[in-house]
Amino acid sequence: MAEEGQKVSLHVYDLSQGLAKQVSTSLLGKPIEGIWHTGIVIFGIEYYFGDGIQQTPVGTTPYGTPIRVIDLGVTNVTKDAFDSYLKEITPRYTHETYNILKHNCNCFSNEVAQHLVGSTIPEYILNLPNEVLSSPLAPLIMPLIQNLEATLRDGDVPQTLQFQPAVDSTESGKSESSESKPLQPMVDPLGNARTAIQEDIAKEFAALRAAGTMSPSEAAALATKKVMEKHGFLNPT
Q: Does this UniProt record's set of keywords contain Repeat (predicted)?
């Protein structure tokens, strides 16, 4: 008698907890629905990539309740065969190899989905890094991306992503205490100049593209460089 197939599903989480949808247009010049984390669910276990390949019983991951559960299909791969497969790919999914833009949890979910059911996970999840990087304002949120990458590489769950203006530490007149403190929202390195810089980059980008001599990525890079130099955040080269 043939062994019954196992259902495979994709659990989708928004690491921004809704914030990306609210602020992405102002930060990136385009709407981003969420900052996606995914895990593959099979055999009653959720598998995902962070600080190496992780596995926990369904419903017990530190990411809470998924905002979407996507049915990927049915597989005839056995538990033993799947465990062997995970051991085989483990060297490519380690703490050191994690990269939030190029080699992340969604890359892992996509590879595992193809192995189990022969299909990929949704394009809108896989294309998120390109959506972010193709924006002329992408360099402005790189500190946030790097902070998020460090958190996820360690297998931790990020706090709600926030920006707050940079504050001069001398204003408070108080020195930093050596005692541990609750984590604070990440300080925006552009401070109160962010809005003006975003507007200037968007204008410069539009002008460069209108000239018709540069690709979007080239225009974005040059526009950002020129405006950041203008505002004193980069030294002219």
A: no
105, 107, 115, 231: the active-site residue: 105
Position 126 in a domain: yes
The answer to whether residue 127 sits within a structural domain is yes
The model's pLDDT over 127-165, given as tens digits with 9 standing for 90+, comes to 988 887 777 666 666 666 666 667 777 766 665 444 444
Q: Is 105 a catalytic residue?
A: yes
Q: Which of 37, 103, 115, 231 is catalytic?
A: 37
CA within 13 Å, CB half, 109: 27
Helix (H, G, I), strand (E, B) or coil at 164: strand
Q: Do strands 164-165 and 45-50 pair parallel, antiparallel, or not at all (unpaired)?
A: unpaired
Q: How far apart are CA 30 and CA 53, in angstroms?
A: 32
Phi, psi of 77 (to 5 degrees): -65, 130
- Residue 217 maps to a domain: no
**Rg of the chain on CA atoms, in Å:** 21
Threshold 0.70, pTM exceeds: no
